[in-house]
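Hi, here's the filled form for the chain we discussed.

Project: internal
Contact: R.S.
Residues: 256
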Amino acid sequence: MAKVKKQSPAAVSLKRIKDEMEDVDYAKDSIVGDTYGNDCFVYVRSTTTPAENDTQEPSMKNFWIARVLQVRAKDASHVYALVAWMYWPDELPKPKKPSADQVNKAGGKRTYHGAYELVASNYLEVVDVLSFAGKADVQQWDEDEDGDQIRSQLYWRQTFSRETHALSPIREHCICKGHYNPDVPMYICDNAECKIWLHKQCLIDHTLTKEFEKINLASGSTSNSKGRSTKTKPYAGVLSGKPEERAPTKDLLSKM
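And the returned structure, exactly as it came back:
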């Protein structure tokens, strides 16, 4: 049901709307008690949304989500909205150039996309407002302004270009220059000259690499990488470790 491959079942030809509708701009429209206005977010029934008489409780991901840009109507029975689609990360098409942080090669979801994350797009479509299933509470998250708190509601921080399949850049974290997934804890270095957030695996790799180098230096040996895969960690088979959750992060970072 990827939006780049086919239209929503509720989609209507933009040309048809222009031809048939009066040039009347409705700031809002009410449907079954809900009032929809410009710039609000809405749930839109999709091909996977359970029928109204289905006993299954629909989840958020049974719906598409869109941002209403404009509501227009020919009359009370023919009301349409111009919407910009929001993507669930699982719906993102694969990038034209492979990215190291793709969850899988067949799709565009990245490892930093959270469970409540949406991606805004420039994919516009006209839909019948009768396909709306209710309002969606979606907030924009600016990591620089709002901090790094974990999100427990629908949010978006990134945009997707339908033409190029490119995602907009977001704030970098960690020594790997990667990104923050709000569902995965990160560790902050409380050194006044550092103050960066670190991914768990990056923290482990960096600490063990430094310890391995100290061991080699103390023993007078040198690390021999000949014949070793570039993906193999220098400490592999010699050292292992994990962050101790009960200890202050700075104790572990002091070894770095």
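Let me know if anything looks off before we file it.
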